[in-house]
Design goal:
Blueprint (H helix, E strand, L loop, with lengths): L4 H4 L10 H4 L2 H17 L22 E3 L14 H5 L5 E7 L12 E9 L8 H5 L5 E3 L14 E2 L1 H14 L15 H4 L16
Antiparallel strand pairs: 1-4, 2-3, 3-5
């Protein structure tokens, strides 16, 4: 079997720099020309924030929330998938076995006794919600995250559940909750005014 390298691989050559390019003079001149063009001919845009809030695209990844199931319980099953997938190590879960004599937890093996997320360490990559097998953790469209101390921005289980309650009542559910067959925010992102469409992903339960 022969492999035709010329048809499948395009080989590039390292550009040769002259003395002008080595001193970055053309790059500096080009940058200054672009800046001056925007100063004199560019269209200025002023956003009256915070009086006028920005339009957030449907696939925006903001502050986390923990979802509830149909019975109002925390949807998390304490499988540690999100904690394992998190590249910033900002999620900490302590699991407890579900009481077998309690009919409220008869369909669960365990549940999160504690669930904390350090919102300051988080890089908002969305890998936690991608890894969750039961769609218990999601990133909302809440972007204005402030606090006086670092401790205030370490969200526990009760805080994350309260964010779910608040976003559910205001109708600001993440569109990933009811995702389409093409992936998170598939239908909404097609008509969104800002932001690129999310990466494709097959549907799962």
């Amino acid at each position: 079997m022969t492999f035709n390298k010329s048809k499948t691989v395009k080989w590039g050559e390292e550009p040769k720099l002259g003395w002008r390019e080595a001193m970055y003079l053309p790059a500096i001149a080009s940058g200054l020309a672009t800046a001056l063009r925007h100063v004199f001919a560019g269209k200025t845009t002023t956003r009256q924030y915070p009086e006028v809030e920005p339009v957030i695209p449907p696939n925006y990844r903001g502050v986390h929330r923990l979802n509830r199931d149909e019975e109002g319980r925390v949807k998390c099953v304490a499988c540690y998938m999100c904690q394992t997938a998190c590249p910033a190590n900002c999620i900490e879960i302590i699991a407890s076995p579900a009481p077998k004599d309690d009919p409220y937890w008869k369909d669960r093996d365990k549940f999160p006794q504690t669930f904390t997320i350090d919102e300051l360490r988080c890089i908002y990559c969305g890998m936690c919600e991608e890894a969750c097998p039961v769609d218990a953790i999601e990133l909302t469209s809440i972007y204005d995250l402030t606090g006086y101390t670092r401790k205030e921005l370490v969200f526990d289980k009760e805080k994350l559940l309260s964010i779910y309650d608040a976003t559910s009542k205001t109708g600001k559910d993440p569109v990933r909750t009811n995702r389409g067959a093409l992936g998170p925010a598939s239908e909404e992102a097609a008509t969104a005014s800002q932001g690129p469409p999310p990466p494709g992903r097959g549907s799962h339960g």
